[in-house]
Write the structure tokens for this entry.
Amino acid sequence: MSLNLAANAPDNNSLKTADFIFAGAVHLIVIVLIVILSWWQSTSAPDPLPRIEIEMISGKELKNLQIAEKMRSIQKKRAAMPKPKPSVKPKQKAAPKDTFDPFAPVESESNVTEPTAGRNDMADMIGKQLSTQEIGRYIAMMKQAIEKRWKVASDVGKVTNPLIEVVLSPNGRVASARILESSGNPNLDQTLLSAIYAAEPFQVPPRSQFEPFRVNKIWFEPLK
Amino acid sequence: MRFVLLSLLLFIPLASHAVEFTVYQSGYQPKQLAWMVETDAEDQNEKRQFYHIVKNDLRSSQSFAILNPLSFIADPISTMSKIDYADWRIIGADVVAAALLHRTKSGWQADVQIHDPFRTKLLASKTITSESDILRTLAHEVSNFIYETIIGVHGHFNSHILYVTKRGQDADLMYMDQDGANLQAVGKNFTLLLSPDWAPDGRSVALNTYVGNRPRLETFDLTTGERIAFGSFNGLNSTPEFSPDGRYIAAALSYTGNTEIHIYDLKTRKWRQFTHHEGIDTTPTWSPDGEWIAFTSSRDGSPQIYRKRVSGGKAERVSLEASYNTSPSWAPHGDRIAFVTLKNWDYAIATVHIDGSGLRYLATGKRIESPSWSPNGQMILYSVEDHGVRQVYRIPSWGGKAEAVTPPNVDASDPAWSR
């Protein structure tokens, strides 16, 4: 066998360059094929199933969220405007990212020291607006906290839906609560204030995103 | 300058924006009450008695859940001198009520304080005295004070209940405090006794009894036991009810050949016919302002509740659902009427607004009858058959749990709550 091969070798010498070209072409084809296939694979991979989240909100909330959305787009436009002097706030990029966890346990101390204190500069505020979903989540948490503590323990008769304005501090405590529209039953109105004070401190966004939650208007709907 | 303007533009919308949402009432929930009493060392029995009367009153209203005193961190004396609200928030007390009870020359005195730990304020404080050596009335007064401070309506804890006990052919009129204490027979050996109704002054009762086979309407004096007949016509004489001013009694009479509502004037001692309809009209009940009478009528083919002005006019239908609605009882606060109805195939006690809206079922049961409101409109008494024996139950007018108020195994029906 080895002799045979040696004998054939001179014959093959003339094919050497064509052989190289052929080998190169085969390699190229294979590589191109791999690239095409892998590209095809990546494009034709099925999209992950879209996650649809459905949130039940009242008409008032919807309107509210739409206002928030509108406001945010206005703020984005404003942010895109040329900045007057970048030297005014040189440290804005150094601010660490917020690691706020909305599912963390509620703080129970009144003298909570704000971890984000001192960073509520304007750029931060604009840059880190809460998404509609996040706002919805904070509202849901407030709502649940009040609902749980709203104790109606008697027949209140015929009443209208009362409206309460609650002003919060950035630590989630109630700074003030007042009745904007009475239910018509002073006792029922008192149960609302009791519920609000019993539900504090509220879970609110960190200081940089707190502003929309400073003034809260809460409608109450008693059983009729 | 540009920067200032820009920052103003950015901050104004942020500051004025407010979150707005709606909180829905899911049901009724009792307030968690921390209740405690302190007395002089030699009055430990009185302290215990006083504590339990108030506790039982407030618990039975179902507006309060009484916290176990073993979980208290502070004692009554320190709470009343210098309260630390955090001590009470930690055990979830919505209300803290403390009383210092001590003897006076002629009776007892209770100094009561009521606090809200979450709003961190003293809601009310009061000294309540009693000229009697008996603690029970004073304890009910304290219950009333706590109840009114928190719930905003008068307490009903010094009120009384009448009901009928049937023994063979005879019936007794029974009397007791609203908490079941002081139970006694005030009228004995009636030949049948039906639908007693308190006079507004609480001294007498209008009732329906029989003499021989003939039904008769009488007033019965609760202190002297004197019985005065005021309606003994041919046919049916039934379901008397006092007007809120105590001057009139409405009742169902059938001497005209048809059962109609008539009104008796206690001053002139004269009857006048109130309803004129070929249907059967019975079980009248007055509105608290005395301007309307609600009653059961079969004028639309089935028994339904109607209301009509005392001064006259057209009867308006109140009950809109079910083919059977009877025994109306107008609430003392005026905006609801309790009655017996049919829910699916069960008899039930329900209440409805006087315009027929807001139907609220409260309880069902066999032979469920005779709803009667507490004087503050927060509870309803009724009778129902329980294991073959009729008993009187009560239930909060807003729902809640039904609770027997008469002793078991003794027939009890036709309850009437003092006004």
